[in-house]
Design a protein that fits this description.
The protein is α+β, with helices and mostly antiparallel strands. It has a single domain, classed as Orthogonal Bundle (Transferase(Phosphotransferase), domain 1), CATH 1.10.510. It is about 35% helix and about 10% strand. The chain has two helices and four strands. Strands 1-4 form a two-stranded antiparallel ribbon. Strands 2-3 form a two-stranded antiparallel sheet. Strand 2 (about 40-45) and strand 3 form a beta hairpin. It is globular. This is Protein kinase domain-containing protein. One of its GO terms (molecular function) is ATP binding.
């Protein structure tokens, strides 16, 4: 899809829908990705968005700041600096 140029609103909406469902599934099972960014979302041959690169993932008990700083909420890093 990327090689075809900019995404239309419909395709972008479906990708976001799939990615959101994937993250919700992970959170339901106690898994935090901790490095979610556009580069870690791929599109299958069937057009389904897939979340990749779970190398920094953890269960909900391991709550330390990590990941790509530009994609994290500022409060995550502010909280980490306080400890």
């Amino acid at each position: 899809m990327i090689s075809e140029g900019a995404l239309c609103e419909k395709d972008a909406s479906w990708i976001l829908h799939d990615a959101t469902n994937g993250i919700a599934f992970c959170h339901l099972h106690g898994v935090l990705h901790r490095d979610l960014k556009p580069e870690n979302i791929t599109i299958s041959d069937h057009g389904t968005a897939k979340i990749t690169d779970f190398g920094l993932s953890t269960n909900t008990k391991g709550l330390t700041a990590c990941g790509t700083e530009q994609y994290n909420a500022p409060e995550i890093w502010a909280h980490e600096e306080q400890h």
